Structure formats: C-alpha cells, structure tokens
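@channel sequence for tomorrow's demo:
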Amino acid sequence: MQDFPPSAAPQRLKRRADFLRAAKGKRFHARGFTLQAATQFGLEQRGVDRIDLGSPAPPPRFGFTVTKKIGKAVLRNRIRRRLKEAVRTAEALPVRPGHDYVLIARIEALRLGFPAMQAELVRSLGRIEAGKSKAQTPRSQSTSATAAPQGKPGRNGRPD
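structure tokens (generated this afternoon):
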C-alpha cells in the first residue's frame, strides 16, 4: 500500500474494458458511493505482489460513474465533481499501485458533507485493501431451485 500526495491529480480510467474489469473485482458499499477495485490489466498475470522493485509500478487509477437514475446531467455532473475533488484532496489515500478503483455514485454523495465524504472514501479504501469487503462471487444455484417445486397441496395432499 502506498500513500499518494493530496495535490497530485489521480490518473483516470477512461476505457470501458477497465470499468468492466473493476466491476468483477472487490466491492465495498459506502453511504455515498460504491467502491470497486481490481488490478490493472496485465498485472494480474504477473502477480501484483511480485512487482519488480527496479521498475516503477503503475500509479493507481480512478474512474467515476453516475447513472441516469440519479437525475439530470447537471445533478450528475455536480456529484461527479464532488467525488473527483474528494479523491484529489484526501489527505492520504490507502491505495495500491497497479490497481484500478471505480466510484459508483449514489444520491447521498450530494447530501453528505464534504469532510464526511472524504472520511468515507478513506475508510472504504482501507476496508477494500484490508480484504474486509464483499468480493463479487458467482452465485451458486440455491437448494430450492434444485428441489421439487413447493406449491400448495392439492386435493390428494401433493403439490400441484
């Protein structure tokens, strides 16, 4: 883990493939946003923990998503600007080099105070890096789907 200075603007995610890869990684739900994290493309084959000390690791990148369910463009842009500024000005973000982070905004991101949003961002990054997040896992078939159908018993006492 590495702390980055608050004045440096973080690198941005811009390609759809990077956003989709982050969606398959770790996930943490905070009040104002959902945070997704994954290793950058090409690093997962080599193993992120085994990056050569001689070659610099790529800096972490951030992506921001605000869906149309939130509101019109003016509101979405205001929320996106707040999230970008929270990432840019946070004191010490506990992020890893070679990782991509995506913030998916909620309407509460506009209602939260700015210091509270920054604290929530630092807390969520710390939790996702500590491995205390709920990683997205494929859902297995439930036992009720494989069992016999459970309907109302008919006249003979058996399910219809």
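heads up for whoever presents: Residues 27 and 36 are 4 Å apart (CA to CA).
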